[in-house]
Amino acid sequence: MTSAIEKDRDNDVPLEKKLDDLYKLIDGIETAMVTTRRADGHLVARAMQTQRRTSGTDLWFMTNIESEKFEEIARDPHVNVSYYKDRTREWVSVSGRGIVSRDRDLIDSLYAADWKLWLGDEGDGKRDGGPHDPRIGLILVEADTVHYSKKDRPTPMVLFQMAKSMITGEPPKVADMREIGRDELHAPRKSADLR
Predict the structure, then answer these.
(1) What SS3 state is found at 134?
(2) Which pTM was predicted?
(3) N or C: which end of the chain has fewer CB within 10 A?
């Protein structure tokens, strides 16, 4: 009997196809959960919006430098970023290294007006959530490994597979589970992707 994990594995596809499918998933999910490690060793996850995705699945997030997550990443850079698409039950898990930045040129290039919502205006003319607010920092997550589940089957096929599973006792294949390792992520590719 084949295990559900083995049945769902789909790593025999070319790297470019794995990356294309991964990028479509990430680009189609507005909110990520970014997990860091607190000073006491416990993990904490926070909802954050991906600001930009770069080649190799490196991800940029905006943060308030006065927040605990900025300090947590500075202390322990190991992070996880996860995405979940409720309608299709597809998901992405990116494990990597978080790097904090206060680079003003980079902040200016990524700045979005909705950042004001998350920072607020303290009325002092500087801490107003605008592009030059000194509280704005960036987190770059450099991907080390990526795991994701991609559903490319129509719903009736998934339902059929589930019904068949109830009869046969074999786990249904309802999605493709893929892994992209460090060597693949850092291999030279035909073109750099920056979005």
Answers:
(1) coil
(2) 0.78
(3) N
